[in-house]
Amino acid sequence: DAAGPLSHRRVLVTAGPTVEPIDPVRFIANRSSGKQGYAIAAALRNLGADVTLVTGPTNEKPPAGINVVRVQTAREMMSASEAALPFDCAVCCAAVADYRPEIETPHKIKKERGGLTDIPLTENPDILKTLSKMTEGRPRLVIGFAAETDDVLGHAEAKRNRKGCDWIVANDVSPGEHCAMGGERNTVILITEDGDEEWPEMSKGEVARKLADRIAGALKGPALV
Ligand code: C5P
């Protein structure tokens, strides 16, 4: 392990979108550049953590010195994350598709047969919720993200309770000049057990470094895993 306040700490970062096939040529996915998650993985590694990045397809170059597991679907992201347990901390940045097509058709659906007007969907596993609610070997610190377009704080606080995670990093993804979605900058609110902290607009790299410092502070004390 590298030296630093997070040396010997194992941290999971999920990042990017998940991609859920409809047929061999089509998929359902979420918008996600992976930038914030990759920056967090790099910042944690720079503090000495042993980082596993479980990532959906993105155009980002994975930071050196971390374990990278590439996945496509939410189910793959879930099982890759579980397979890499235990972790001291999990940071779930991925934009996971909530639903996937119930059946993946092995042949291309032809519009001539009216096949694309109705795609039955089924719910995907929730990685953040699953990790948060683990009864044995739960990561000490589980962090989720909440991308919202309105009532950011209200929705994010409700999400923290619903998912059972420790912290939520909430951001406003309303379209605009400095849109976080795909952009280089982010304005976030960190919601912890101690309340809400609004951070000023900064680069995704700065958000990552600030969050990594907070994680290091929270994981002080003897390693549990
Ligand atoms: O419910 P929603 O998708 O808005 O919650 C966002 C948070 O939950 C993010 O941290 C995301 O990575 C995580 N999530 C997950 N698995 C899902 C859906 C969301 O880990 N199936």
From TrEMBL:
- Catalytic reactions on record: N-[(R)-4-phosphopantothenoyl]-L-cysteine + H(+) = (R)-4'-phosphopantetheine + CO2; (R)-4'-phosphopantothenate + L-cysteine + CTP = N-[(R)-4-phosphopantothenoyl]-L-cysteine + CMP + diphosphate + H(+)
| Presence of the UniProt keyword Flavoprotein in the record | yes
Cellular-component GO terms for this entry: phosphopantothenoylcysteine decarboxylase complex
Q: Which pathway does the database say it acts in? A: Cofactor biosynthesis; coenzyme A biosynthesis; CoA from (R)-pantothenate: step 3/5; Cofactor biosynthesis; coenzyme A biosynthesis; CoA from (R)-pantothenate: step 2/5
Q: List residues binding CTP.
A: D98, K108, P125, D126, I127, L128, F145, K159, K163
Keywords associated with the record: Decarboxylase, Flavoprotein, FMN, Ligase, Lyase, Magnesium, Metal-binding, Multifunctional enzyme
Q: Respond yes or no to whether keyword Lyase is given for this record.
A: yes
Names of required cofactors: FMN; Mg(2+)
Query: What is the protein name stated in its UniProt record?
Result: Coenzyme A biosynthesis bifunctional protein CoaBC
Native organism is Hyphococcus luteus
Gene name? coaBC
